[in-house]
Amino acid sequence: MHSSRPYIEDGIFYRKGESMIELRNIKKIFGTREESIHAVNDVSLSIADGEIFGIIGYSGAGKSTLVRIINQLEEQSAGDVIIDGRIMQKLSRKELNEQRQKIGMIFQHFNLLWSRTVAQNIALPLEFAGVPKEERREKVNRLIHLVGLDGREDAYPSELSGGQKQRVGIARALANDPRILLSDEATSALDPGTTEQILDLLKQINRELGITIIMITHQMEVVQKICTRMAVMSEGRIVEQGTVKDLFEHPVHEITKRFVHNVDEGQTVEELKEELLRKYPGSKVLRCSFTMNNVDEAILAEAIRSVDFPVSIVDSRIMASSDGSYGVTYIHVYHGTVEQYNRFVTVLVNHAVKVEVL
Amino acid sequence: MATRSLNLEQLLEAVWETVYMTFVSVLFAGIIGLFIGILLFCTSSSGLFRNTVVNKIMDVIVNVLRAVPFIILLILIIPLTKLLVGTSLGAKAALPSLTLAAAPFYARLCMIAFMEVDKGTIEASRSMGATNLQIITKVLIPEALPALISGITVTAISLISYTAMAGAIGAGGLGNLAYMYGFARRNNAVLYTSTVIIVLIVFAVQWTGDTIVKKTDKR
Q: Quick check: B116 contacting A, CB < 8 Å?
């Protein structure tokens, strides 16, 4: 869209490649005369070209409003939105519409037109952009193939499953070759299996087409699976941001902890722990966290061998994320001397396993 | 009495007049109503280009026109009719009042149809960089089409009964035939035949409308 030379606009120095999306002190106030609500409260973010950035938060945290400010479906009350070096609120109506064509968006409820077939739905943004008919047909065919809907081009949305509908949504969002894809809870209405498939597709699109993706979600699994960096939103503010790995391993803010906790500790572990401690008073349940550096080593076996120590594995899971795997294992320790126990834990800790006594 | 018999030529002419009045007034009322309906929807607080002043003015006009009973409207606008078609008698003279009565009614139905369109599709279109005109022509109208068609069906059926009323004050058509020849001259054959034909026309319109709605609705 722009030359790669650095340039200055309004006294701000920009260089392409630095960041694709720059939000500066964004505020959005919804107000009646009596009271005003800060839906977004002083949010600054910088999202790099080509990354998949997750914004996680509970409903009402302001994340949907924030993402709509990026493509100006909502106008901010204060602050600047700079996309690929252009200040959004300075664009004329026509320029804004052209810029929007380069920012695709997908939605929780897909927002397809029921009156149009799959192919016609995908062609819609091309019609808006004034693309000639021949070119439209060619492009639609390519997109249908990209999202894996070959043979379904003449189906109506009512004949499709949720996953297929979202594939149409993705194809439609990609029609005008956007640089950015905004995903507003795009997997929230889908079952876990379909969610996985859609996330794989988004990852593939990011890799093959180099599109910057912003994922708005309340599901930690989504962020964990495909995002490289993330921000946690609560009450209109970003309370914590960083790489997914850092936030997952060392969550600081209460809200972040709650999201991380939800992923690695199901109700069943809690319940089982209670039951075990009741059954074997004086025993211990350990929570051992493995990181990407040691998850593939046989540390547990080594620790058990070194002390000849009876343990049982209560629950164990490995979670794939965009930059490696994380493992969490719950171990119940009920026999053995204090010395044996200490030695066992020492072996684990020496291999950089994080051990907590529950 | 000779008047007890049924004059076929007279009957056919009356059928033609009714069909003509209905068809032309549906056409005009449809175009004007759709336009006002779009304006009402788009200027509303949730619309594409919010404009409270225009919205309120349109709203009042539509409500006033809908509140005036048709038989009174018919008489009230005789000067306007004379201005537009040059006469206040005959099928043509009924057109302005029929259109004026049906257009606000259809405008309301259009507005309701547009309100039923999924807001998400409009938001999605805006996110794709669509202009307001593109949203109206490519999203709003196609997505509301079944409701717009069933609305025009309902409008056409009320217009058929309006033509009968217009007939009573000299517009011709089946209503005129039934009233002047059937009722006033106590010719039951004419009265019942015209009534049956009107009912048949209503059925035909309803059936056609329903069929088209079914064809266009892909939900």
A: no
